[in-house]
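writing this on my phone so excuse typos. first protein, seq and then structure
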Amino acid sequence: MGNGVQLKGDEFVTLVLDRNFHFSLGLSPWAFWTIVALAILLIVIRFAGPYLTPRSWRAFEIDQAQFGLGQQKISLRPNETDRQIAYKIWVELSTRKIGLPIDLDDDVITEIYDSWYNFFSVTRDLIKDVPVSKFRRKDTEQIIRLSIEVLNSGLRPHLTKWQARFRRWYERALASDESATLHPQDVQKTFPDFAALKTDIETVNQRLILYRDKMYELVTNL
């Protein structure tokens, strides 16, 4: 090719035009390694960025005993995906009867059960919407598993024991002549096992309120 004509050059980049009008670009060793370092930095930020922010590295602990799920304590360092999951669960718990204090002098048990059932469905959908790539992260997996445990070990035992029995009795009680002048709240108190049901439903309610509060703490864990 022979000698080329240098159009632009310095210690960083050199651009040369040869006699056949072909361009060639030259990089100094310093320029080359600078570009390599920047490329590595961009890759690190792209894939590890969410885990490297100061906020994501703050430890957070959840005591499962508070929810009646055993004595295990979960220690994790939540990232933005974890907080998004916790936020959605907190909203559902805060806007439904399931995460608000129950007062059976005013609340109707069948309506509470309806709210619990809807929470089952919504929480399942929230969990299913989490991409599998996010689930592979250990801390995210633990939050999802805890939510499933709250459904299966927190809610399900009460519903299995009481819901069908109470609903069947309640429908008949409401249709009876004796209940014609009574409020639904007064009718439900005549359920033969009302005291035991009341104790159980309030226990579950208190645990769900703690669960709601813990999800809020996780969202705001700065």
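second protein below, same order as before
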Amino acid sequence: MAVTFTLGYWMGSNSQKSALEPVNSLTSSDMEHAFGNVQPSAHESKVQEAPAQSLGGLVAGLEKKVAANPENIDQQILLAQTYNELDSRDKSLKLLRALNKQSPKNAQVKITFATILMKSEDKKELKEASQLFDEAIQLKPEAGSMARMYQGEIRVKLDNLPRQ
């Protein structure tokens, strides 16, 4: 939920949903709207695809857009979120680690990275997520309420994990 909320938060007016309304699921129409993907041909639209196949095709298109325009951090963030939504968490984290290193002053990258890390049961990842939220607050104070709420969730999770 945190990742999809962040997607809605950052997509804002680009989404068909209200900027304040959380995105509860990542749909192909949200991605098409956000990136202006070409509408399918008449033949393609007749073919009914499973949602995962449809998103898989959109991922390939998004990967091409990212490769063609590597300076566009927003597209890379969406790609990382999409990887995570499609159960490719490792790909997502690898991309976000690289983005965070490349753009250490980008609050969007830090918040997205932290929201994905905070779903872990690994103490190291949870602590890293909390630290990323602290860094995001320094860069974007208006995200403080959201970041502090997530840090509270992380604290509860850390307190409930078995001690080693």
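The mean pLDDT is 78. thats all i got for now
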